[in-house]
Automatic annotation (TrEMBL):
Gene3D superfamilies named among the record's database cross-references: Isochorismatase-like
Domain Isochorismatase-like: 58-231
Stored InterPro entries: Isochorismatase-like_dom (IPR000868), Isochorismatase-like_hydrls (IPR050272), Isochorismatase-like_sf (IPR036380)
Keywords: Hydrolase
GO MF term set: hydrolase activity
Lineage of producing organism: Eukaryota, Fungi, Dikarya, Basidiomycota, Agaricomycotina
Highest taxon of source: Eukaryota
Descriptive protein name: Isochorismatase-like domain-containing protein
Family in the record: Belongs to the isochorismatase family.
Organism: Rhizoctonia solani
Length: 237
């Protein structure tokens, strides 16, 4: 298993609560503490691309059927505001500051400016938080922004939770990326909040190694709720 490259210099993550990572490989999770435990953890894996774009065509075919059947479409996507940046926890900050294939991103992290073409990383209204071309919301659809991996954000007053309560929705169908990160995070939290879960297997994908998507599908089938496919839903009567 490949590991995450070491940092070149001591690197700080987070704002009010900080982590410090050192070139030696040590990551200090409590730098202000005089007492600490030090132990080894497994390294991050390299990624290989999964053909996630294969989700786009069947999703585009399915959306009109779902709308006709009265299913509300919610487009849940990243959309950070300036006021969110100081509140980003160190675990999330480090996740989006990691090197890609051994090359450091400069500048790294959420909110970093990628230039006029791509905008600031995962900020609301930027090019990189737009929906993929061809996935176009209609007037009756809802657009919901999130600031964490999970759409519920660990909060009872998240934008997603408020919208679901307003509509009286209890059953959620899931499509999206990455299957084992944002999708799984939202599925697990929805399950813990008592929602009915249905994962659409061929409409979720991930860039993670083998096992990333299958973990979501296995747990959705055996624990969280149910698994279906776009072909089954196209047969809605």
């Amino acid at each position: 298993m490949s590991i995450r490259p070491s940092v070149l210099d001591p690197t700080t993550y987070g704002s009010s609560h900080k982590w410090i990572e050192y070139p030696s490989g040590v990551v200090d999770l409590s730098p202000k503490s005089s007492k600490s435990l030090e132990f080894a953890v497994l390294g991050d894996r390299r990624v290989k691309l999964d053909p996630g774009l294969e989700c786009v065509k069947p999703l585009g075919e399915l959306l009109p059927i779902l709308r006709k059947a009265g299913v509300r479409i919610i487009w849940l996507n990243w959309g950070l505001e300036e006021s969110d940046l100081p509140l980003i926890p160190p675990c999330l900050s480090r996740c989006f500051s990691k090197p890609k294939l051994g090359k450091w991103i400069d500048p790294p992290g959420l909110g970093a400016d990628l230039g006029p073409k791509y905008g600031r990383i995962l900020m609301k209204g930027e090019w990189n938080t737009r929906l993929y071309e061809g996935l176009d919301p209609e007037a009756q659809d809802l657009r919901v922004n999130k600031t964490h991996m999970s759409g519920f954000q660990g909060s009872s007053d998240s934008e997603l939770e408020k919208k679901l309560k307003e509509m009286g929705v209890r059953t959620l169908l899931f499509a999206g990326v990455n299957a084992d990160q944002c999708v799984l995070g939202t599925v697990a939290e929805a399950f813990n909040r008592g929602y009915d879960i249905v994962v659409i297997e061929d409409l979720v994908a991930t860039t993670s190694p083998d096992g990333g998507k299958s973990s979501l599908v296995f747990n959705a089938l055996h624990c969280y709720g149910f698994v279906t496919t776009s072909q089954h839903l196209l047969a809605i009567k």
